[in-house]
Design a protein that fits this description.
alpha+beta; Rossmann fold; 5-stranded mixed β-sheet; 28% strand
Amino acid sequence: MLRTLILVTLILMWVGSCGPSYYRGVVLNDTILKQGKAGLVVGVIQRRSAINTNLPSENDPRDRELFNIYRKHLKTSFVKSGIGYEEGQEKVIVDITIYSYNKGNAFARWLLPGAGTSRLLVQAAIKKDAVLIGAIESQQSISWGGGFSIGGWQHVINWSAKDIGSKICSVLYADTEDSCS
């Protein structure tokens, strides 16, 4: 009986460890891009908050690590979807603004669900010929769990980058919906 209770608890913790993911985006001017003719490039990644103005500066090593990891995962997402920039294509620049980031703590999540949450809120601004053609937002989090949620901060970064890439692909590239993942 105790084994069953532990097993059910572990399964519920695993299933419920991921936080909310939702779609909030807008495409302006009904812009549709063609795969092979227009490719996405990761532009500026910055951190901004309307509430907390004491965020680390761009020279802060923690921010540089976050930006580099996010850039790597976003570029991989574009390439896997077949919408990454290649020589000879029209460049579409995706600038990223990180509005909220909390690295979290797996041990705290294990002790008390909700404590130690890894959380990331990002907005992507999509620009073609220096004109804003759309914006997409992604929110990812891990709010509870134990050992399996170690490195949760890397998971939320990866999930957010995949989410942004997938949303851009499905919204802006009409002919690539099947390859958006």
